[in-house]
């Protein structure tokens, strides 16, 4: 592939890594690597100055990969003669290239036809958290204004939805972290629960190590001894699903030993009585009986955290991706609130956001129930405001739709007939993914906008070439809530189009172009600023000019002269009365408890060298060399129990499927638990096994817990 940079190649280009939420800055400089360019860490961007992890350093590989889709591709439709309608595609049929001026009118025609036959809501949109704020904003507008459908949601539903709901309930506002990363060094006690920072946000580790150097105690709570727990002073190896039992034990000690911050609780929170009643029976002795966590460990951590002058609680998907994920997260937030460790230096709570724009992606309207600025689509005042910005009658705005997985279920049930997927690979990343394959196979129209022919694109009628992170300008919001500008570093190759152009051109074809005419990404941002004004995620004081000068601005930033808000909740919380809420949490069973037939727990997650569905990192040779296949982790106790021999594989069977994996035996995992990373497709996809139970509030799938049986799988049997 020939590379055309946005400016002459002798000039250094700046960008930000496309992978995790740290959003490390990078420079592209002329070099000896394949396209004549080399990636170097940015010496300027303050979040991770001079640091990039293995994924960031290799981020050019997939961009210039020979499998990049370079032109719109179409597949012949299998016509279902009996029903006289257009049917699904044959995933094995060949793609036919098409020109854009053929592709977009034909797609628009198909959409119109489907909406004419089944109604507006028969067409749906599935977005992603790696897209820029401008694209996320446009997608929400496109669904509501151009398609007039209620059905839009995105992959962040699988990611931040439990944390978002919990923070909304506890604080009245969801911004992943209540403080900037720079406060970590001032914390004297840090609780890291279900978060494997060393592999998932590697360039955040120096912040933790600096805190440690300043005397902080670090505690990790995870069923596995992870790379992160290696830096901890105490590691609590709990069985998946027991976080709320353990946290209730901590809260119990804090209350019974009178270690909590009475003034903070009285003046700044509601709900103490409910919380105290809920944890009353959770004595450390009981917690030990239920979880095996020693009484002394619960007491030490409770006392240590409560007595420390400053402290931070960070959670991530370990406890959030559960059918009790919202409750689990609220309980960890209780720890910070009960001890008054929020709203002042060295203190705070953070749900460590996952994707590049996982934060901004959930603020601007690609969620089923949301309008830009973190507004509710059911709030009449919000509808009025957005209707005005968009120049439409608020009554025309559709109501709220359903969550990502529920949209896929609606396809399976026949209610949704068409879907546009952009920036996600749900066939690999959804739970119980055989259902997803079955559902997508039923669509009359599936349009995938991606860089590659992903596992999801196998079911597509149209595969459209989108832009990579280097090829389109835009803004993103990192895990701290810092909004920053990402410049365009090179021209899209071949016929690839910046995602925002593609959406606007399709709107034009649908006859709604008047609402989608923008001169540039900045022009979209300017409209987005107005749309967010007065909302919870208020970006109205942020401009491209400021972002270029200031290396990012923290939202909320409601006015041009507002400095932005790095530290939240110093004086008040975001509920109307200014107070936070404490909740009494009754721990609940997982959706699928272990039993005699399925006696072990499967949990899933990540490894340092791959990213999400693997669409990008499985195409990166240096990363594939490190981790070519998923490796299941089991404890020596379990290995012995199943009679695992040298060189054996293991077969893991859930109520949904049975798969064979390579295996690593390690003391570092809870004995009844098996861990498998989810970055692969097909028969290596652990999501064939996972359960599709959803949290009742956030609709987050229970990725972290299901019951399985495990057998040794002899190589000879292969
Ligand atoms: N290398 C790499 N980095 C990434 C990503 C990637 O795919 N690869 N993805 C990005 C994204 S989108 C996200 S959301 C983040 C995710 O970042 P993390 O949430 O940190 O990653 P996971 O590996 O999913 O889960 C974290 C830990 O939860 C533990 N866990 C499992 N069950 C439980 C439980 O019941 N309780 C507790 N306390 N812990 C449990 C697992 O053992 C695991 O170590 O990472 C981001 N960064
Ligand atoms: N079992 C299990 N499953 C999980 C999880 C787990 O812990 N366990 N974690 C869940 C979580 S937290 C997440 S975030 C999801 C994510 O899962 P997915 O949404 O499937 O994540 P990605 O692999 O990032 O998919 C992004 C797709 O968009 C393409 N792409 C990247 N950048 C761009 C762009 O700028 N424009 C366009 N048009 N396309 C682009 C990529 O090639 C890729 O195909 O997975 C979830 N699934
Ligand atoms: S830490 Fe995250 S943003 Fe930074 S280089 Fe690694 S993957 Fe990219
Ligand atoms: Mo995520």
From TrEMBL:
Q: Does the keyword Magnesium apply?
A: no
Q: What is this protein called?
A: Assimilatory nitrate reductase catalytic subunit
Gene Ontology MF: a single term: oxidoreductase activity
Q: Which residues form a coiled coil?
A: none
- InterPro entries linked: MoPterin_dinucl-bd_dom, Mopterin_OxRdtase, Mopterin_OxRdtase_4Fe-4S_dom, Prok_molybdopt-oxidoreductase
Its Enzyme Commission number?
1.7.-.-
Q: Which cofactor does it need?
A: Mo-bis(molybdopterin guanine dinucleotide)
Q: Which residue range or ranges hold the 4Fe-4S Mo/W bis-MGD-type domain?
A: 9-67
Judged by the first EC level, this protein's enzyme class is oxidoreductase
Report the Pfam families cross-referenced here.
Answer: Molybdop_Fe4S4, Molybdopterin, Molydop_binding
Organism of origin: Paenibacillus allorhizosphaerae
Q: Which domain of life is it from?
A: Bacteria
The protein's UniProt keywords, in alphabetical order, are: 4Fe-4S, Iron, Iron-sulfur, Metal-binding, Oxidoreductase
């Amino acid at each position: 592939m020939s590379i055309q940079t946005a400016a002459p190649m002798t000039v250094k280009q700046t960008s930000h890594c496309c992978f995790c939420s740290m959003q490390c800055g990078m420079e592209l400089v002329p070099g000896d690597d394949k396209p004549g360019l080399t990636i170097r860490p940015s010496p300027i961007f303050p979040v991770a100055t001079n640091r990039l992890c293995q994924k960031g350093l290799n981020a050019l590989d997939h961009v210039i990969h020979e499998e990049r889709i370079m032109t719109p591709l179409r597949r012949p439709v299998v016509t279902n003669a009996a029903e006289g309608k257009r049917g699904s595609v044959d995933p094995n049929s060949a793609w036919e290239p098409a020109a854009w001026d053929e592709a977009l009118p034909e797609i628009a025609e198909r959409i119109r036809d489907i909406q004419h036959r089944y109604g507006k809501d028969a067409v749906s949109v599935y977005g992603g958290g790696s897209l820029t704020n401008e694209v996320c904003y446009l997608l929400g507008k496109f669904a509501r204004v151009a398609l007039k459908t209620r059905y839009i949601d995105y992959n962040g539903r699988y990611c931040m939805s439990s944390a978002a709901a919990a923070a909304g309930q506890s604080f009245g506002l969801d911004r992943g972290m209540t403080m900037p990363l720079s406060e970590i060094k001032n914390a004297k006690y840090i609780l890291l629960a279900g978060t494997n920072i060393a592999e998932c946000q590697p360039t955040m580790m120096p912040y933790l190590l600096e805190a440690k150097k300043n005397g902080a105690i670090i505690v990790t709570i995870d069923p596995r001894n992870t790379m992160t727990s290696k830096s901890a002073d105490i590691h609590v190896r709990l069985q998946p699903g027991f976080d709320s039992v353990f946290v209730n034990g901590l809260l119990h000690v804090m209350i019974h030993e009178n270690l909590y911050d009475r003034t903070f609780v009285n003046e700044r929170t509601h709900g103490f009585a409910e919380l105290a009643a809920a944890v009353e029976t959770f004595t450390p002795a009981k917690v030990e009986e239920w979880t095996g966590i020693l009484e002394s460990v619960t007491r030490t951590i409770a006392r240590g955290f409560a007595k420390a002058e400053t402290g931070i609680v960070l959670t991530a998907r370990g406890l959030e991706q559960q059918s009790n994920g919202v409750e689990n997260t609220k309980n960890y937030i209780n720890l910070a609130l009960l001890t008054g460790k929020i709203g002042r230096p060295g203190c705070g709570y953070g749900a460590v956001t996952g994707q590049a724009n996982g934060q901004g992606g959930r603020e601007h309207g690609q969620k089923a129930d949301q309008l830009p600025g973190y507004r509710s689509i059911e709030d009449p005042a919000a509808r009025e405001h957005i209707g005005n910005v968009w120049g439409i009658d608020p009554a025309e705005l559709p109501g709220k739709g359903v969550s990502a997985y529920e949209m896929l279920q609606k396809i399976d049930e026949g209610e949704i007939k068409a879907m546009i997927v952009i920036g996600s690979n749900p066939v690999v990343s959804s739970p119980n993914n055989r259902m997803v394959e079955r559902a997508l196979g039923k669509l009359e129209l599936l349009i995938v906008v991606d860089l590659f022919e992903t596992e999801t694109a196998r079911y597509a009628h149209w595969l459209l070439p989108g832009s990579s992170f280097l090829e389109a300008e835009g803004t993103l919001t990192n895990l701290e809530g810092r909004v920053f500008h990402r410049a365009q570093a090179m021209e899209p190759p071949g016929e690839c189009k910046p995602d925002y152009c593609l959406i606007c051109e399709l709107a034009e074809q649908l006859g709604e172009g008047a609402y989608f005419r923008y001169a540039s990404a900045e022009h979209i941002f300017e409209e987005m600023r107005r749309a967010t004004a007065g909302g919870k995620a208020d970006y109205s004081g942020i401009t491209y000019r400021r972002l270029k000068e200031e290396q990012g601005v923290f939202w909320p930033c409601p006015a041009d002269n507002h400095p932005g808000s790095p530290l939240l909740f110093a004086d008040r919380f975001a509920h109307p009365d200014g107070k936070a809420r404490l909740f009494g949490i009754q721990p609940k069973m997982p959706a699928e408890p272990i039993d005699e037939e399925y006696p072990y727990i499967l949990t899933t997650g990540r490894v340092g060298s791959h990213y999400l569905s693997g669409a990008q990192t499985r195409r990166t040779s240096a990363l594939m060399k490190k981790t070519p296949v998923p490796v299941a982790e089991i404890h020596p106790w379990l290995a012995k129990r199943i009679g695992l021999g040298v060189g054996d594989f293991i077969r893991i069977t859930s109520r949904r499927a049975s798969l064979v994996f390579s295996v690593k035996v390690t003391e570092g995992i809870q004995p009844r638990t098996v861990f498998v990373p989810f970055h692969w497709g097909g028969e290596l996809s652990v999501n064939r096994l996972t359960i599709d139970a959803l949290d009742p509030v956030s609709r987050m799938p229970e990725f972290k817990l299901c019951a399985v049986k495990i057998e040794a799988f002899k190589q000879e049997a292969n």
